[in-house]
Amino acid sequence: MNILCPNCQKMLTVPDECAGQSMRCQLCNGAFTVPSLPGVASPPLFAATPEPDIYPIRPEPPPSAPSPLAYSPSPSPEAAAVPPPSPQRTTKRDDFQRTLVFSLSPTVLPWIAPVCLLLVFFLQFFDWVGLYPGGEPAEVGNAWRIAFGVYAIDGDLKNLVPFVEDEKYKPGVSVLTLFYLLLFFPALAVTVASVVIPLVPTKLPPQVTELLPWRWAITAAANLILFLFLGLQLLLGFSLDSRYQEWVDKETKRETKSNPTTPERKLANATRGELLERLRHTVWLRLVVLLHLIAIVSSVLLFWLDQRGAHRPLPRMELKW
Fold first, then answer.
1. pLDDT (tens digit, 9 = 90+) per residue, 20-59?
2. Number of Cβ within a 10 Å radius of residue 251
3. What is the SS3 assignment for 103?
4. Would you say the pTM of this structure is higher than 0.85?
5. I need a labelling partner for 8 at 20 to 30 A (CA). Which of 33, 38, 233, 321 fits?
6. From CA 140, how far away is CA 171, in angstroms rounded?
7. Which residues contact 274 (CB under 8 A, 6 or more apart)?
8. Which domains does the chain have, with CATH numbers?
9. CA angle, corner 278, sides to 274 and 284, nearest 5?
10. Is 153 exposed, middle or buried (0-12, 13-18, 19+ CB in 10 A)?
11. Which residues of 36-59 are buried (b: 16+ CB within 10 A; e: fewer)?
């Protein structure tokens, strides 16, 4: 039979066997009672509108098994009081606050090697090695004095370094330092020319023009050869180093018996160590070594940049924290 839902006013189709039973509208979920059928077929209880939409309907389930659609439990107050978990903040790997970028400047980099060698030239007149009893310079020498075995001696402290009066242990010529000084000026000229020649507006000879792409390789090689002589001299020791150590060994052995006891041996070692502490290489010599290394590295970088080509971007290093 066709009846009109009293709740949503939609036309519903109900099986005849459901007459007189409680039903629930499938559209609005409203409950109503299906009217009983008369003995003779009669028109539906409710008047139908012209050409209504007819929807099927299912019978109302028994009270013992309520429909899940008709019951929706409300949340308990305890469950409603619990706030939802807040989303955890995740730190991104690129969440940095500061950035520092280092880039190779083509206008500054060519001047590093010439400036370093000019500083080395002035530092050659500072003391490189000497004897410092108690921190006072008793006998010192710069690069030029070391090369020719001539050292400056403080007359007031002469008694603290008696080995200077012994001709057998007098420092001599440092051959490697002498070659280092002789090669220094050609290396300085090549380094300065590598910067100045491209700035000269005059036309250069063809032989010089062919060497221009290799000028920084030549500069790096010249500085490397120069540094090798200085490094070998430091590795083998200056003439003052070797002569003074020989004198200290002689003095400690002379004051030690052939079969020394443990206290005598300890005293001899302490005396030898105290005497050797007077021999020092100054901070000016360490600075010279550092400047030579910087000049070599900058020359190699310039040669590498020339080989890469001017059309490629300059290398840079980015530091984030």
1. 788 788 778 778 787 877 654 444 444 444 445 555 555 5
2. 16
3. strand
4. no
5. 38
6. 11
7. none
8. 1-62 (no CATH), 103-320 (1.20.140)
9. 145
10. middle
11. eeeeeeeeeeeeeeeeeeeeebee
